[in-house]
Design brief:
single chain; mainly alpha; 0% strand
Length: 97
């Protein structure tokens, strides 16, 4: 969430107009980022072979499955989730040197 929106929401008495403007700014930013991401993917696909495009599609499908399982919209997991995914440090193999 944008800093401006968070500040507006965290105010002692949030102003509806300020919150609304901040929400619209966040929405516009998300739309712009989505359009840029889609344009980048089109340019990337133009450079890939059909086999590479299939691999890209498979990776995207795997990511969608993972994010659905986590129950979020694709954001980064917090530190606790990353630690859970990786496992305890004691499980790492010993480094001999």
């Amino acid at each position: 969430m944008g800093a401006r929106l968070r500040k507006a929401l965290d105010a002692e008495a949030p102003d509806a107009a300020t919150v609304g403007e901040a929400m619209l700014a966040v929405k516009a930013h998300r739309q712009k980022a989505r359009a840029e991401r889609e344009a980048f993917e089109q340019q990337l696909r133009a450079l890939l072979s059909p086999e590479q495009q299939q691999k890209l599609d498979a990776m995207k499908a795997a990511r969608r499955t993972l994010t659905r399982r986590r129950g979020d919209r694709g954001g980064r997991p917090d530190v606790r989730e990353r630690r859970r995914d990786v496992g305890p440090l004691s499980a790492a193999p010993a480094v001999e040197g």
